[in-house]
Amino acid sequence: MSDRMAPLRALVAAELAQPVDPAVVAMAAAIAARHPGSQAVLFYGSCLRETRLDGLMLDFYLIVADYAAAFGEGWLAAANRLLPPNVFPFEHDGLIAKYAVLSEADFARLASPATRNVSVWARFAQPSRLVWQAGDDAGARAIAAVASAAPTLLAAARPCLPDRLPLLDLWRGAFALTYRAELRAERAGRAGSVVDADPARYTAFTAPALAAAGITATIDREGIGFAPLSQAERRAGLRAWARRRREGKALTLLRLAKASGTYAGGIDYLAWKISRHSGQPVEIRPWQRRWPIAGAIALLPRLIARGAVR
Predict the structure, then answer these.
(1) What's the pTM?
(2) Fewest CB within 10 A of the end CB: N or C in the chain?
(3) Residues 238, 112, 126, 42: is their CA dihedral positive or negative?
């Protein structure tokens, strides 16, 4: 690992170590206990900012050594390997959650420039907590993977951003690109609200993340200045994001279809999440519960037409 990663890795390690509600730690340990070969559990999402967890859906990533150890040699291991991650509901001591399962190898790959898919590196460029680890080595590997997310985000976004802009607009613009690269139920402006919820954090992460990405920038009270990019570099960046959008939306459809079959009550969860984030009611018909994969596929065109997902 290059020396330019060291300042960012230290910031990430400190952030991941910040304390959380003991109930979250207990739930993370219970999730890890379900799967042999568990290495780390990461807590992320909007619930990080909440003081009352009752009635909320907590979000976790479970990192495992490999899928065969976690699931055995059945179809769940094959599904996680073919189209990661698998997502499962979980309840513990009165709290509810969902957790996604990735192998250490997939987590490191999906948090890095090795993939065009934004789902992991966009999420872990945001705050998260390491709430369970199998040992120090497992924790160090999780920290290294998370530390690669923000540089990946900023390097991908740079060709689509101005050469001069306010510091927080760097992150707002970068997250806005990732939100458009997936089918999302969140209201317009969600990418900006993520940054505005913790501006000091993104201010502190800016210089180390840019350095880790190998991007030279001048930061002052007026904002950030970059060396100008050529038109060819900007066109290449725009083409890359167009491809991410095509692939990302198709991949989201495939993951939703898979989750509606592997996630108990998956289609009802899908409806709840879309309704919660978009403010629009989503009705699930009885036949869609009987055949959840077909039901999810049939549901999505109506939601897109209504603007409930984008």
Answers:
(1) 0.85
(2) N
(3) positive
8-state DSSP, 49 = G
Euclidean distance between CA atoms 110 and 102, whole angstroms: 9
Question: Domain 3-151 falls in which CATH fold?
Answer: Beta Polymerase; domain 2 (3.30.460)
Q: Tokens for 35, please give them.
A: 């799967």
Mean pLDDT, consecutive 10-residue stretches, the chain (310 aa), reads 86 98 97 98 92 90 97 89 91 94 98 96 97 98 98 98 97 95 63 90 98 96 95 97 91 73 60 58 65 57 57
User: Where are the chain's structural domains?
Assistant: 3-151, 162-242, 249-306
Angle at 181 between CA 301 and CA 131, to 5 degrees: 110
CA angle 294, 57, 193 (to 5 degrees): 100
164-165/223-226 β-pairing: antiparallel
- The gap between the terminal CA atoms of the chain, to the nearest Å, is 37
Confirm if 143 and 9 have CB atoms less than 8 A apart: yes
Q: Which residues of 114-132 are buried (b: 16+ CB within 10 A; e: fewer)?
A: ebebbbbbbbbbbbbbbbb
- pLDDT at site 284: 67
pLDDT at 74: 84
Question: How many C-beta neighbours within 10 Å does residue 105 have?
Answer: 13
User: According to the model, what pLDDT value does residue 226 have?
Assistant: 97
pLDDT, residue 91, reads 94
3-state class (DSSP) for residue 55 = coil
**CB proximity list for 249: less than 8 A, separation 6 or greater:** 181, 182, 183
- Sorted by sequence, the CB contacts under 8 Å of residue 182 that are 6+ apart come out as 118, 119, 248, 249, 252
Q: How many CB atoms lie within 10 A of CB 180?
A: 17
